[in-house]
Amino acid sequence: MQNPRVLAALQERLDSVPHTPSSYIETLPKAVKRRINALKQLQVRCAHIEAKFYEEVHDLERKYAALYQPLFDKRREFITGDVEPTDAESEWHSENEEEEKLAGDMKNKVVITEKEAATAEEPNPKGIPEFWFTIFRNVDMLSELVQEYDEPILKHLQDIKVKFSDPGQPMSFVLEFHFEPNDYFTNSVLTKTYKMKSEPDKADPFSFEGPEIVDCDGCTIDWKKGKNVTVKTIKKKQKHKGRGTVRTITKQVPNESFFNFFNPLKASGDGESLDEDSEFTLASDFEIGHFFRERIVPRAVLYFTGEAIEDDDNFEEGEEGEEEELEGDEEGEDEDDAEINPKV
Amino acid sequence: MQNPRVLAALQERLDSVPHTPSSYIETLPKAVKRRINALKQLQVRCAHIEAKFYEEVHDLERKYAALYQPLFDKRREFITGDVEPTDAESEWHSENEEEEKLAGDMKNKVVITEKEAATAEEPNPKGIPEFWFTIFRNVDMLSELVQEYDEPILKHLQDIKVKFSDPGQPMSFVLEFHFEPNDYFTNSVLTKTYKMKSEPDKADPFSFEGPEIVDCDGCTIDWKKGKNVTVKTIKKKQKHKGRGTVRTITKQVPNESFFNFFNPLKASGDGESLDEDSEFTLASDFEIGHFFRERIVPRAVLYFTGEAIEDDDNFEEGEEGEEEELEGDEEGEDEDDAEINPKV
C-alpha cells in the first residue's frame, strides 16, 4: 500500500464511484487538505461573527418589545374588562361575515332576529372570561401539563408578559404570569427566567445556529394553606420496630401540576451531568418557554380562537399534502393563496 | 331555537364537551366576540410592527455581510490558489486527529511513513480544485438540477457571493456566480436576483412570519458558439404540402440544465396567475435561492466536506430518533452534546 502509484490508482477509483463527502476528502492530496483546514479556521471566525449578529438581533427584539407593549397593555385591558373597546376598535370583517352578507336577504333577516333575541337575554360577562386558560386548553404542549385541579387556578391568569434582559446583561428573558387575587396563592406574578447563550461551542463551533436556551429559574409560589397543588399528602402506617405499635403518619410527596413549571430542574453548570430523563424534561421545559415567548405571547388571540393552531397544523402537514392535491384537482378553485414562498 | 333558554342550555352543553376552538368562539356572547375582534385589530397592528422589525434585521444582515466579506475573500483566494494559507492559518485539530494521537506510537509511525511516501509523489494542484462543483454534487437540491453536460462548466465556478440591496431600496438579494474564463460563455459573473417582501398580506395578515421571496430575475448568458447547454437542436423532416418534397430542418428546443436557473419564470405580478406546475417550479427556485443565501454561501466549506449535510440529516431525523436512543442506551458514552436546546 506504500506504492504511490497504487495509491493514486485507488484515489482515481474512489473518485469515479459515488462516495460520501468525507471519504472524498480523505482522497485529497495533503496540500489540498491543508487549504481545507484554513477554510475551516475561517468558518470558525464566521461563527463568532454570527454570534455577535444574534446579540444585535436580541437588542432589536428588546427595542421592538417596547413598541409592542402599548398594544399588549390594551389587549390586557380588553381581556380583563378594565376597558371596553370602542366601536371603531372592535370592527372586524371576517371571511365568513362576507359570505353571510352575500347570502340572500331572507336568510339575513332570520339571522338578525335570532341574534337580537339572543342579545336581549345574553349575559355580558366582564372582558373575555378565561382568555389565557382557554389558550392553555387549545395548545397541546400546555394542555398536557394541566391537571384538573390546576384549571380553577389558571382561570385567574390575567396576562403573560415577556421581559428581555437589559442591554449589556447576559442574554435572557423572563416570562411573567400575572394573576388576579385568588384563593390559591398570594403572589400576583409568577416568573420563569430563561438564560440564553449566543456563543459557538468550543468543541463543536460549526453546530452554532443562533442563541440557545441553556438554563432556567422558577420562583417560589406562596401557596395559601392547603392549596398547594404541587404536593399531595399521603398517609402511611408505620410500625415501631421495638414496641410493635402502629401509627399513621402523613407525608407530602410531589404531585403532577402545571405549577411545577415554576420549580424546574437546573441544567448542570458545574460539570455534573443530568440523567437522560432529566435532560428530556429540561429540553421540554425549554421548548415550552421558547413557545410562550415566540408564539403565544405575541399572538395570544390567535391561540385563543384557534387560528394559529390551524396554521401550525397546516404548516406541519406541509408540502406532501400539497403535492397530492396537485394531482387530484384539475382546476383549483381557490389556489392563489398556496404557500409557494419559503420564509426567509 | 329562538328560545334563549334553549340556546343557553345548548351553549352550556357545547361548553362542557371537548370542542374545536372555533366552535367554542361561536358560543360566546356577542359582547365577548366584540372584544375578541378588538384583540384581532391589535394583532394586525402587531403584524405591521413585526414587518418593521424584519426590515431592521435585514439592515443588520447587510451590516454583517460587510464583516463576513474579508473572510469570504480569503476563502476565495485559498480556493483559487491565488494565496497559500500560512502554517498558522491552516492549523486544525479534528476529533479524528486527537484519536489518532491517542493511538499507540507504533501505529503513528506507520501513518507518518505512509503520509511521507504519499507526499513525495503527491500532486499539488492549485488551490482546492472543483470546490464549488463538489458542493453542487454533495447537496441533493442542487445535484438534481445538474446534468452531465453542466459538470465541466460548473468546474469553472470560483465563487458565489450574496449581495444585499442598498438601504432604502426594496428588500432583495443577488446571488453572484463568479466563473473563471472558460470555453462556454463570456460572462465572468452570472446573477440571480431575489426580490423579497416584508409586509403582512392584506387579506391574511395573521399568516405573516417574516420576509418572503416574492419574485426573481436571472441574467443573459452569452454562450459561445455551439456551447449553449440550455437548448438542444433537433432535426425534423418536413414534407412540402403541394410538391410532396421532403426537407430536413433544424429547430432549437429547451434542454434541461442547471443553467436554466438563470432564466426563471416570472411570478405573476399583474393579476395573471401561474398554473400549478409553474407555481411549484417557482417555489422550488425560491427555496434554492434561499438555501444558497442562508446555508451554502455562509458555510461553503461544511457543504464541501459534508459536515453540514450530516448536520442537516441529523436535524431532520430529529426527536423521534433521539427518543429511541434514550430507550436503548443504558449509559450513553458521549451524550453530553445531545441537542436539548430549542434554537431561538
TrEMBL record, chains A, B:
SUPFAM superfamilies: NAP-like. InterPro entries: NAP-like_sf (IPR037231), NAP_family (IPR002164). It is found in: Nucleus. Residues 308-344 are annotated as: Disordered. The keyword Hydrolase does not apply. GO terms for biological process: nucleosome assembly. This is Nucleosome assembly protein 1 like 4. GO terms for cellular component: nucleus. Its main location: nucleus. It comes from the Eukaryota. Keywords: Nucleus. Belongs to the nucleosome assembly protein (NAP) family. The lineage of its organism: Eukaryota, Metazoa, Chordata, Craniata, Vertebrata. The keyword tRNA-binding does not apply.
